[in-house]
Design a protein that fits this description.
- The complex is a heterodimer of chains A (382) and B (215).
- By secondary structure, chain A is of the alpha+beta class.
- In chain A, 54% of the residues lie in helices and 18% in strands.
- In chain A, strand 3 and strand 4 form a beta hairpin.
- In chain A, helix 2 runs antiparallel to helix 11.
- The longest helix of chain A is centred in the C-terminal third of the chain and has 43 residues.
- In chain B, the strands form 2 sheets. Chain B has a 6-stranded mixed β-sheet with strand order 6-7-8-3-9-10, sandwiched between helices. A 4-stranded antiparallel β-sheet of chain B has the order 2-1-4-5, covered by helices on one side.
- The longest helix of chain B is centred in the last third of the chain and has 16 residues.
- Chain B is globular, with a radius of gyration of 17 Å.
- The interface between A and B is medium-sized, with 23 and 30 residues.
Chain lengths: 382, 215
């Protein structure tokens, strides 16, 4: 005999009791793992979706900013196109997906007024949702003397293979599918072409910057915008598009907080159930404890037996809980998050760690009760 | 060896043991005979160091038992006494041999030697072929024999037996008391409390409890 034998032999020979104890911990840990795993899948999916919103930061003049929604060019101040390099040189430049310099100009095409935007090939990275007949843009991106039309702009101009801007002929390469944005009313030409056409060589109205950290936990859009601001000269400012970013971040945070509350409650419930299980285990073994005390076992040893038992139940429950939780998330996760759910290996040590703490904490009171039993009382209860 | 000096135990106003004085010499076999509720078990628990008396002193081998700290008393009990109870009090999830190993483990004996001693003791009480049975797989007589082997494991100087035959039929009871008698013949000191006259008569010396007082 050794101390561990009192625990292991009791657990092996009273399997039902041991299984009940393990289930208490397993319940909490599996829910913890399942919510964490599903949450991550949901988070990754949302992040990917957020990236499709495109620009998260607008860099424009401090003087007379360009009103992107009204499309009124008026006396909007211009910025040098070379600021692209300044933006690229920020500390967290790896988080920049695309920098799209843009020049806007309004033209009269026939009887229609058309807002024409000068763009660079980076626009494709910034707007992955731009489709032509449901397919991504491949060869239809406008090059010199070519124009890409938004859906409503094309409808207003009628069927034609080209348009004339300031007397210059631009071939229509394609018409974009409806996007539900102001892009539907615009025409897109290469930036250089528009700069040349309007005699604004090397100048733009604004830069649209797409970052990969719209849903980052460590770095947010505001911080990236601040970094850009530092790199710019006094005439320009970087404005984070807070509405989209903050709303999406808030949604993600709420989902995360909600699931955190769920698993904390379930972990507490598991701990409470385990404490009850341990207490009933002490009550069931009262006579055995009394006998051990009568034979001269010291109270600290009795205490250790029950703490160790809780820890072992926690260890098994934590280990099993990780796999059960991962299984649950892989089965139910795709239905909830509508995306593939992958196991998170680093949750295994976390699960075991949390389970060990639950096991130890839940055993403190029952162990103390066992250690302070009066052997006479315990032996009397036959 | 064991001396009780004016030991009294009270629960509130109720006096369960009235001024008991007793002297048990080494190698003696003393039975304390009394009806149920006469305070026999209380007296035995006091002698065992499990229940402190309200008044008086218990001296074992010159040591005042209740002058020791709880921890020292536990160690003292472990070294000096072996217990046999009416209800055997075997640990149900341990096998026969493991039950006998418990006091040996408590005495700090290493595992291999524990098994050897326990097996030898079980052989002595006729349970050689039932070493790995659980208590639930044994008859009541066999369970009491395991309890006897366990009580002897530490080679205690005193065996304290509380109605050891109370749960046994007459034949098995006699077998068990014969084992206890043999322990005494081998030099062990035995203090037996019982309500059974026949069992009490196996002792060398018989003390009666009348009206909660030792006579």
């Amino acid at each position: 005999m050794k101390l561990m034998d009192f625990i292991t032999k009791e657990m092996i020979r009273r399997k039902r009791g041991a299984v009940a104890g393990v289930l208490c911990v397993l319940l909490g840990i599996s829910i913890f793992v399942a919510t964490q795993t599903t949450n991550k899948a949901l988070y990754d999916k949302t992040k990917e979706q957020l990236l499709r919103f495109g620009a998260n930061i607008i860099v424009q003049s401090k003087g007379e900013p360009f009103d992107i929604y009204s499309g009124s060019v008026g006396s909007a101040a211009l910025l040098p196109e070379i600021y692209t390099q300044e933006i690229q040189s920020i500390e967290h430049s790896k988080m920049l997906i695309a920098i799209s310099p843009k020049l806007y100009e309004r033209f009269k095409v026939g009887t229609q007024s058309l807002l024409v935007v000068g763009i660079t090939p980076d626009e494709r990275k910034a707007k992955p949702w731009w489709l032509i007949n449901n397919d991504p843009i491949v060869n239809q991106f406008p090059e010199n003397k070519e124009v890409l039309l938004g859906q409503y702009a094309a409808r207003r101009l009628g069927s034609s293979s080209h348009i004339e801007l300031n007397g210059e002929r631009f071939a229509i390469t394609a018409v974009l599918d409806e996007t539900g944005s102001p892009d539907d009313f615009m025409a897109f030409v290469p930036l250089k072409s528009l700069q040349s056409l309007t005699h604004k060589q090397g100048m733009v109205n604004l830069f649209e910057v797409s970052t990969s950290c719209i849903a980052c936990k460590t770095m947010n859009v505001n911080e990236i915008a601040k970094e850009i601001d530092k790199m710019l000269h006094g005439d320009a400012q970087a404005l984070p598009m807070k509405q989209i970013a903050e709303a999406q971040m808030a949604t993600l945070t709420k989902v995360e907080q909600f699931t955190r509350i769920i698993y904390i409650v379930v972990l507490c419930l598991g701990a409470f159930l385990l404490m009850n299980h341990m207490s009933s285990s002490v009550a069931n073994q009262k006579r055995d404890i009394g006998m051990l005390l009568a034979m001269g076992m010291e109270s600290p040893k009795i205490h250790r037996i029950f703490i160790l038992k809780g820890v072992i139940l926690g260890l098994i429950g934590g280990f099993a809980g990780y796999f059960v939780g991962t299984g649950i998330s892989m089965v139910l996760g795709p239905q909830i998050a509508e995306t593939k759910v992958a196991p998170i290996v680093y949750l295994l040590p976390y699960s075991i760690g949390i389970a060990l703490v639950i096991g130890a904490i839940s055993s403190i009171l029952p162990a103390r009760k066992a250690a302070t039993l009066d052997p006479i009382e315990a032996l009397r209860e036959v | 060896m064991i001396e009780l000096r004016n030991v009294t135990k009270k629960y509130g106003d109720m006096e369960v043991v009235k001024t008991a004085n007793l002297c048990v010499e080494k190698g003696d076999f003393v039975s304390v005979l009394g009806p149920s509720g006469s305070g026999k078990t209380t007296l035995l628990n006091i002698i065992a160091g499990l229940l402190s008396p309200t008044r008086g002193e218990v001296i074992v081998d010159g040591v005042s038992l209740y002058g020791l700290s709880l921890r020292k008393r536990a160690v003292f009990r472990r070294k000096k006494f072996g217990f046999i109870f009416q209800t055997f009090n075997l640990i149900p999830y341990l096998t026969t041999v493991e039950n006998v190993e418990v006091p040996l483990y408590l005495a700090g004996i290493y595992k291999k030697k524990q098994k050897m001693i326990a097996s030898e003791l079980l052989e002595k009480v006729g349970l050689k072929d039932k070493l790995n049975r659980l208590p639930s797989q044994l008859s009541v007589g066999e369970q009491q024999r395991v309890a006897i082997a366990r009580a002897l494991a530490n080679n205690p100087q005193v065996i304290l037996a509380d109605e050891p035959t109370g749960n046994l039929d007459s034949k098995t009871g006699k077998e068990v008391i014969t084992y206890i008698r043999r322990l005494n013949e081998d030099g062990g000191t035995v203090l037996l409390v019982t309500h059974d006259r026949e069992m009490a008569s196996f002792a060398r010396r018989e003390i009666k409890i009348v009206d909660r007082r030792l006579l």
